[in-house]
Amino acid sequence: MPPTAPILGCVDPAPPAPLTVLLAAPRGFCAGVDRAIEIVELALRVHGPPVYVRHAIVHNTHVVADLEAKGAVFVEDEREVPEGGLLVFSAHGVAPEVKRNATEAGLRTVDATCPLVTKVHFEARDYAEAGYAIVLVGHAGHQEVIGTMGHAAGSIWLVETPEDVDGLELPDPDRVAYVSQTTLSVDEAAAVVARIRERFPNARGPRGDDICYATQNRQDATKVLAARSDVVFVIGSATSSNSKRMVEVALAAGAPAAHLVNDASAIEEAWLEGVTTVGLTSGASAPEALVDGVIARLRERPGGVAVEPLEVVAEDMHFALPAALRRLPMA
Fold first, then answer.
1. Residue ranges of domains in the chain
2. DSSP string covering 183-248, please?
3. Which of the following CATH numbers is that of domain 19-29+213-311: 2.60.40.10, 3.90.1150.10, 3.40.640.10, 3.40.1010.20?
4. Which CATH code, of 3.40.50.150, 3.30.420.40, 3.40.50.11270, 3.40.50.2000, is assigned to 31-114?
5. How do the pLDDT tens digits run along the chain, 331 residues long?
6. Is 144 in the active site?
Protein backbone atom coordinates (compact mmCIF):
# COMPACT_ATOMS: atom_id res chain seq x y z
CA MET A 1 0.00 0.00 0.00
CA PRO A 2 1.49 3.37 -0.95
CA PRO A 3 2.30 5.72 1.96
CA THR A 4 -0.38 8.20 2.79
CA ALA A 5 0.49 11.69 1.59
CA PRO A 6 0.61 14.36 4.30
CA ILE A 7 -2.40 16.60 4.46
CA LEU A 8 -1.33 20.13 3.66
CA GLY A 9 -2.11 22.70 6.31
CA CYS A 10 -2.35 20.24 9.20
CA VAL A 11 1.27 20.40 10.37
CA ASP A 12 1.47 22.05 13.79
CA PRO A 13 3.53 25.25 13.56
CA ALA A 14 6.63 25.51 15.70
CA PRO A 15 5.94 27.36 18.96
CA PRO A 16 7.19 30.95 18.95
CA ALA A 17 10.61 31.48 20.51
CA PRO A 18 10.62 33.30 23.84
CA LEU A 19 11.33 37.00 23.80
CA THR A 20 14.66 37.84 25.42
CA VAL A 21 14.54 40.78 27.82
CA LEU A 22 17.89 42.28 28.76
CA LEU A 23 17.31 43.91 32.14
CA ALA A 24 19.80 46.70 32.78
CA ALA A 25 21.53 47.34 36.08
CA PRO A 26 21.73 49.88 37.50
CA ARG A 27 18.25 51.24 36.81
CA GLY A 28 15.45 52.95 38.69
CA PHE A 29 15.63 54.95 41.90
CA CYS A 30 18.87 56.76 42.62
CA ALA A 31 19.95 57.69 46.15
CA GLY A 32 18.57 61.23 45.82
CA VAL A 33 15.13 60.00 44.74
CA ASP A 34 15.07 57.31 47.45
CA ARG A 35 15.91 59.96 50.03
CA ALA A 36 13.27 62.44 48.80
CA ILE A 37 10.46 59.87 48.83
CA GLU A 38 11.52 58.61 52.26
CA ILE A 39 11.48 62.19 53.58
CA VAL A 40 7.86 62.70 52.50
CA GLU A 41 6.75 59.31 53.85
CA LEU A 42 8.49 59.92 57.19
CA ALA A 43 6.99 63.40 57.43
CA LEU A 44 3.53 61.90 56.86
CA ARG A 45 4.07 59.29 59.56
CA VAL A 46 5.55 61.68 62.13
CA HIS A 47 3.52 64.82 61.42
CA GLY A 48 0.41 63.30 59.92
CA PRO A 49 -1.35 64.56 56.80
CA PRO A 50 -1.47 66.94 55.16
CA VAL A 51 2.19 67.37 54.29
CA TYR A 52 2.68 69.88 51.53
CA VAL A 53 5.29 69.33 48.83
CA ARG A 54 6.48 72.12 46.57
CA HIS A 55 6.36 70.72 43.02
CA ALA A 56 6.38 66.98 42.29
CA ILE A 57 8.78 65.44 44.83
CA VAL A 58 10.34 63.56 41.89
CA HIS A 59 9.27 63.53 38.25
CA ASN A 60 7.17 60.36 38.18
CA THR A 61 3.37 60.33 38.02
CA HIS A 62 3.06 56.99 39.85
CA VAL A 63 5.20 58.17 42.78
CA VAL A 64 3.21 61.40 43.06
CA ALA A 65 -0.14 59.58 42.96
CA ASP A 66 1.00 57.12 45.65
CA LEU A 67 2.09 59.93 47.98
CA GLU A 68 -1.13 61.86 47.32
CA ALA A 69 -3.08 58.78 48.42
CA LYS A 70 -1.12 58.84 51.69
CA GLY A 71 -1.90 62.50 52.37
CA ALA A 72 0.72 64.54 50.53
CA VAL A 73 -0.52 67.73 48.87
CA PHE A 74 1.52 68.99 45.92
CA VAL A 75 1.66 72.73 45.25
CA GLU A 76 3.54 74.83 42.71
CA ASP A 77 3.87 77.87 44.96
CA GLU A 78 4.85 77.92 48.62
CA ARG A 79 2.29 80.69 49.19
CA GLU A 80 -0.48 78.12 48.65
CA VAL A 81 0.40 76.45 51.97
CA PRO A 82 -1.62 77.60 55.03
CA GLU A 83 0.25 79.27 57.89
CA GLY A 84 1.86 76.72 60.17
CA GLY A 85 1.80 74.03 57.49
CA LEU A 86 4.67 71.64 56.86
CA LEU A 87 6.30 72.09 53.46
CA VAL A 88 8.83 69.76 51.81
CA PHE A 89 11.07 71.14 49.06
CA SER A 90 11.36 68.68 46.17
CA ALA A 91 14.49 66.80 45.13
CA HIS A 92 15.06 69.30 42.30
CA GLY A 93 15.89 72.12 44.70
CA VAL A 94 14.54 75.65 45.02
CA ALA A 95 15.82 79.21 44.79
CA PRO A 96 16.65 81.09 48.02
CA GLU A 97 13.59 83.29 47.45
CA VAL A 98 11.33 80.26 47.90
CA LYS A 99 12.85 79.51 51.30
CA ARG A 100 12.50 83.15 52.34
CA ASN A 101 8.83 83.15 51.31
CA ALA A 102 8.21 80.00 53.34
CA THR A 103 9.87 81.48 56.44
CA GLU A 104 7.94 84.74 56.14
CA ALA A 105 4.68 82.75 55.80
CA GLY A 106 5.36 80.93 59.06
CA LEU A 107 5.80 77.51 57.45
CA ARG A 108 7.81 74.63 58.83
CA THR A 109 10.05 73.22 56.13
CA VAL A 110 12.05 70.11 55.32
CA ASP A 111 14.52 70.25 52.44
CA ALA A 112 14.53 67.13 50.24
CA THR A 113 16.88 68.65 47.64
CA CYS A 114 19.24 66.00 46.27
CA PRO A 115 22.70 66.60 47.78
CA LEU A 116 24.22 66.55 44.28
CA VAL A 117 21.91 69.41 43.27
CA THR A 118 22.86 71.26 46.44
CA LYS A 119 26.50 70.89 45.37
CA VAL A 120 25.70 72.76 42.13
CA HIS A 121 23.91 75.48 44.15
CA PHE A 122 27.06 75.98 46.24
CA GLU A 123 29.22 76.15 43.12
CA ALA A 124 26.98 78.74 41.48
CA ARG A 125 26.80 80.87 44.62
CA ASP A 126 30.57 80.75 45.18
CA TYR A 127 31.32 81.72 41.58
CA ALA A 128 28.82 84.59 41.73
CA GLU A 129 30.31 85.92 44.97
CA ALA A 130 33.78 85.79 43.36
CA GLY A 131 32.58 87.95 40.48
CA TYR A 132 32.38 85.33 37.73
CA ALA A 133 29.84 85.24 34.92
CA ILE A 134 28.33 81.76 35.23
CA VAL A 135 27.22 79.67 32.27
CA LEU A 136 24.65 77.06 33.28
CA VAL A 137 24.27 74.11 30.92
CA GLY A 138 20.69 72.93 31.22
CA HIS A 139 17.13 72.90 29.93
CA ALA A 140 15.03 76.04 30.22
CA GLY A 141 12.03 75.67 32.52
CA HIS A 142 13.30 72.60 34.37
CA GLN A 143 12.78 72.93 38.13
CA GLU A 144 16.42 72.19 38.88
CA VAL A 145 17.55 74.91 36.48
CA ILE A 146 15.11 77.44 37.96
CA GLY A 147 16.43 76.70 41.44
CA THR A 148 20.10 76.91 40.45
CA MET A 149 19.62 80.20 38.62
CA GLY A 150 18.06 81.63 41.76
CA HIS A 151 21.30 81.03 43.66
CA ALA A 152 23.24 83.30 41.30
CA ALA A 153 20.62 85.79 40.13
CA GLY A 154 22.09 88.44 37.85
CA SER A 155 25.30 86.49 37.29
CA ILE A 156 24.12 83.42 35.38
CA TRP A 157 23.38 82.65 31.72
CA LEU A 158 21.58 79.51 30.54
CA VAL A 159 22.68 77.53 27.47
CA GLU A 160 21.40 74.26 26.04
CA THR A 161 23.52 73.78 22.90
CA PRO A 162 26.98 74.66 21.59
CA GLU A 163 25.26 77.21 19.34
CA ASP A 164 23.85 78.94 22.42
CA VAL A 165 27.42 79.36 23.67
CA ASP A 166 28.36 81.11 20.42
CA GLY A 167 25.72 83.74 21.09
CA LEU A 168 26.84 84.60 24.63
CA GLU A 169 27.89 88.17 25.40
CA LEU A 170 29.47 88.10 28.86
CA PRO A 171 30.83 91.05 30.88
CA ASP A 172 34.39 89.73 31.12
CA PRO A 173 35.46 86.80 28.89
CA ASP A 174 38.35 86.11 31.27
CA ARG A 175 36.13 85.66 34.34
CA VAL A 176 33.78 82.90 33.28
CA ALA A 177 32.70 79.75 35.13
CA TYR A 178 30.29 76.98 34.21
CA VAL A 179 28.03 74.49 36.00
CA SER A 180 25.54 71.90 34.72
CA GLN A 181 22.11 70.52 35.41
CA THR A 182 22.66 67.10 36.98
CA THR A 183 20.34 65.07 34.72
CA LEU A 184 21.65 65.94 31.25
CA SER A 185 22.89 63.60 28.56
CA VAL A 186 26.55 63.12 29.45
CA ASP A 187 27.72 63.31 25.83
CA GLU A 188 25.61 66.36 24.96
CA ALA A 189 26.71 68.22 28.09
CA ALA A 190 30.34 67.44 27.27
CA ALA A 191 29.90 68.96 23.81
CA VAL A 192 28.50 72.18 25.30
CA VAL A 193 31.27 72.39 27.91
CA ALA A 194 33.86 71.85 25.17
CA ARG A 195 32.44 74.84 23.30
CA ILE A 196 32.48 76.94 26.48
CA ARG A 197 36.16 76.16 27.02
CA GLU A 198 36.91 76.81 23.36
CA ARG A 199 35.26 80.23 23.41
CA PHE A 200 36.40 81.13 26.94
CA PRO A 201 39.80 79.42 27.44
CA ASN A 202 40.10 80.62 31.04
CA ALA A 203 36.67 79.30 32.05
CA ARG A 204 36.55 77.58 35.41
CA GLY A 205 34.47 74.49 36.03
CA PRO A 206 33.54 72.22 38.94
CA ARG A 207 36.18 69.97 40.45
CA GLY A 208 34.08 66.97 39.51
CA ASP A 209 31.43 66.43 36.87
CA ASP A 210 28.07 68.00 37.77
CA ILE A 211 26.21 65.20 35.95
CA CYS A 212 25.18 62.93 38.81
CA TYR A 213 26.60 59.44 39.23
CA ALA A 214 23.17 57.83 38.69
CA THR A 215 22.57 59.68 35.43
CA GLN A 216 26.00 58.63 34.19
CA ASN A 217 25.54 55.00 35.24
CA ARG A 218 22.07 54.67 33.70
CA GLN A 219 23.21 56.20 30.45
CA ASP A 220 26.24 53.86 30.31
CA ALA A 221 23.95 50.86 30.86
CA THR A 222 21.57 52.15 28.18
CA LYS A 223 24.39 52.28 25.65
CA VAL A 224 25.14 48.61 26.29
CA LEU A 225 21.45 47.74 25.91
CA ALA A 226 21.30 49.66 22.64
CA ALA A 227 24.09 47.58 21.13
CA ARG A 228 22.35 44.28 21.95
CA SER A 229 18.63 45.00 21.55
CA ASP A 230 16.10 45.33 18.74
CA VAL A 231 14.17 47.87 20.81
CA VAL A 232 14.88 49.64 24.12
CA PHE A 233 12.14 50.54 26.59
CA VAL A 234 12.96 53.24 29.15
CA ILE A 235 10.39 53.33 31.94
CA GLY A 236 9.80 56.89 33.14
CA SER A 237 7.43 59.81 32.98
CA ALA A 238 7.44 62.41 30.23
CA THR A 239 8.38 65.03 32.85
CA SER A 240 11.55 63.14 33.79
CA SER A 241 14.61 64.76 32.23
CA ASN A 242 16.97 61.85 32.96
CA SER A 243 14.50 59.32 31.51
CA LYS A 244 14.06 61.29 28.28
CA ARG A 245 17.82 61.62 27.95
CA MET A 246 18.15 57.81 28.23
CA VAL A 247 15.91 57.37 25.19
CA GLU A 248 18.08 59.84 23.27
CA VAL A 249 21.21 58.01 24.42
CA ALA A 250 19.82 54.65 23.25
CA LEU A 251 19.07 55.98 19.78
CA ALA A 252 22.43 57.75 19.52
CA ALA A 253 24.16 54.49 20.54
CA GLY A 254 22.56 52.61 17.64
CA ALA A 255 19.36 51.10 19.01
CA PRO A 256 16.99 50.43 16.06
CA ALA A 257 14.17 51.83 18.21
CA ALA A 258 13.72 53.24 21.71
CA HIS A 259 10.60 54.36 23.57
CA LEU A 260 9.81 56.16 26.81
CA VAL A 261 6.99 54.28 28.57
CA ASN A 262 5.19 55.52 31.66
CA ASP A 263 4.11 51.96 32.51
CA ALA A 264 3.17 48.63 30.88
CA SER A 265 -0.06 50.04 29.44
CA ALA A 266 1.94 52.41 27.20
CA ILE A 267 3.63 49.60 25.22
CA GLU A 268 2.22 49.29 21.71
CA GLU A 269 2.14 45.84 20.13
CA ALA A 270 3.51 47.27 16.87
CA TRP A 271 6.75 48.11 18.68
CA LEU A 272 7.36 44.37 19.20
CA GLU A 273 6.81 43.18 15.63
CA GLY A 274 9.88 41.25 14.46
CA VAL A 275 11.61 41.86 17.80
CA THR A 276 13.56 39.06 19.48
CA THR A 277 15.47 41.07 22.10
CA VAL A 278 14.10 43.91 24.24
CA GLY A 279 16.39 46.12 26.27
CA LEU A 280 14.63 47.21 29.47
CA THR A 281 15.70 49.94 31.89
CA SER A 282 14.16 52.72 33.96
CA GLY A 283 14.89 56.31 34.84
CA ALA A 284 16.14 57.43 38.23
CA SER A 285 12.64 58.37 39.42
CA ALA A 286 10.80 55.22 38.24
CA PRO A 287 9.71 52.62 40.86
CA GLU A 288 10.82 49.02 40.38
CA ALA A 289 7.18 47.92 40.45
CA LEU A 290 6.79 49.48 37.00
CA VAL A 291 9.65 47.31 35.69
CA ASP A 292 7.89 44.25 37.08
CA GLY A 293 4.70 45.36 35.37
CA VAL A 294 6.37 45.63 31.97
CA ILE A 295 7.93 42.18 32.32
CA ALA A 296 4.52 40.75 33.30
CA ARG A 297 2.97 42.42 30.24
CA LEU A 298 5.61 40.89 27.96
CA ARG A 299 5.11 37.44 29.53
CA GLU A 300 1.53 37.48 28.27
CA ARG A 301 2.74 37.24 24.67
CA PRO A 302 2.98 33.85 22.94
CA GLY A 303 6.32 32.20 23.61
CA GLY A 304 6.88 33.88 26.96
CA VAL A 305 9.93 35.81 28.09
CA ALA A 306 13.48 34.93 29.07
CA VAL A 307 14.87 37.66 31.37
CA GLU A 308 18.64 38.14 31.36
CA PRO A 309 20.16 40.56 33.90
CA LEU A 310 22.76 42.87 32.37
CA GLU A 311 24.86 44.53 35.06
CA VAL A 312 27.06 47.26 33.62
CA VAL A 313 28.29 48.87 36.83
CA ALA A 314 27.73 48.21 40.52
CA GLU A 315 25.97 51.04 42.36
CA ASP A 316 25.82 51.50 46.11
CA MET A 317 25.06 55.04 47.24
CA HIS A 318 23.01 56.37 50.14
CA PHE A 319 22.31 59.91 51.35
CA ALA A 320 21.51 60.71 54.98
CA LEU A 321 18.13 62.18 55.88
CA PRO A 322 17.97 65.86 56.90
CA ALA A 323 18.16 66.71 60.61
CA ALA A 324 14.92 68.74 60.27
CA LEU A 325 12.95 65.48 60.22
CA ARG A 326 14.14 64.63 63.71
CA ARG A 327 12.84 67.96 65.01
CA LEU A 328 9.25 67.39 63.87
CA PRO A 329 6.73 66.93 66.74
CA MET A 330 5.02 63.56 66.85
CA ALA A 331 1.56 63.61 65.26
1. 19-29+213-311, 31-114, 116-199
2. TS-HHHHHHHHHHHHHHSTT-B--SS-SS-HHHHHHHHHHHHHHHH-SEEEEE--TT-HHHHHHHH
3. 3.40.1010.20
4. 3.40.50.11270
5. 555 555 555 555 555 678 999 999 999 999 999 999 999 999 999 999 999 999 999 999 999 999 999 999 999 999 999 999 999 999 999 999 999 999 999 999 999 999 999 999 999 999 999 999 999 999 999 999 999 999 999 999 999 999 999 999 999 999 999 999 999 999 999 999 999 999 999 999 997 778 899 999 999 999 999 999 999 999 999 999 999 999 999 999 999 999 999 999 999 999 999 999 999 999 999 999 999 999 999 999 988 899 999 999 999 899 999 887 767 665 4
6. yes
Alpha-carbon gap, residue 181 to 179, rounded angstroms: 7
Catalytic residue, candidates 78, 123, 144, 160? 144
Q: How many residues does the chain have?
A: 331
Q: Maximum Cα–Cα distance for the chain, whole Å?
A: 102
